[in-house]
């Protein structure tokens, strides 16, 4: 699989590392060049400085022909915008974006975006732990 990960924070670096170690072709984009220090020394993919909502940056990252795109920056707005660009402009088959705000997540589902909310997932796990 060819994938682009937008955001090289803890989650983005972990996803990139996991995919890379499984032999996938991974490109990570982040606006902060220092963020790539989170990638392991064994990382074989590409690390690219740039803004993942910039179509020229996405083209340079090789968005044409990729199989998957994940938007996992700290900003819900940037993640949603990048996910929409990947899905609707570049027709990436699998697009997932992280959304912290559960209320927004419902709206984005209605737009056809696949989202993951760590807020909702974390609350669910903690509730289950409290009840067990």
Give a topology summary.
Blueprint: E1 2-6, H1 10-21, E2 25-30, E3 46-49, H2 55-60, E4 68-71, H3 76-89, E5 94-98, H4 102-110, E6 114-116, H5 118-131
Parallel strand pairs: 1-2, 1-4, 2-3, 4-5, 5-6
Summarize the structure.
With 132 residues, this protein is of the alpha/beta class.
Walkthrough of the structure:
This protein is of the alpha/beta class and 132 residues long. The chain has one domain (2-131): 3-Layer(aba) Sandwich (Rossmann fold). The chain has five helices and six strands. The chain has helices at 10-21, 55-60, 76-89, 102-110, 118-131, and strands at 2-6, 25-30, 46-49, 68-71, 94-98, 114-116. It has a six-stranded parallel sheet with strand order 3-2-1-4-5-6, with helices on both faces. The termini are far apart.
CATH topology: Rossmann fold
Estimate the helix proportion, in percent.
40-55%
By DSSP, the count of extended strands is 6
CATH architecture: 3-Layer(aba) Sandwich
The chain-level structural class is alpha/beta
Sketch the major β-sheet: 6 strands, parallel
CATH superfamily: NAD(P)-binding Rossmann-like Domain
Order of helices and strands: EHEEHEHEHEH
Number of domains: 1
Task: Write out key terms for the chains shown.
132 residues, alpha/beta, six-stranded parallel β-sheet, 5 helices
């Amino acid at each position: 699989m060819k994938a682009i990960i937008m955001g090289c924070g803890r989650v983005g670096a972990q996803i990139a590392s996991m995919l890379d170690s499984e032999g996938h072709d991974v490109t990570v984009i982040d606006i902060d060049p220092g963020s790539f220090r989170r990638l392991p020394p064994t990382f074989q993919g590409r690390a690219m400085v740039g803004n993942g909502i910039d179509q020229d940056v996405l083209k340079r990252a090789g968005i044409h022909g990729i199989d998957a795109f994940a938007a996992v920056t700290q900003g819900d707005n940037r993640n949603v915008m990048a996910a929409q660009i990947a899905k609707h402009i570049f027709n990436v088959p699998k697009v997932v974006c992280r959304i912290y705000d559960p209320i927004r997540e419902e709206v984005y589902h209605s737009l056809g975006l696949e989202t993951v909310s760590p807020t909702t997932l974390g609350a669910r796990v903690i509730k289950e732990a409290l009840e067990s």
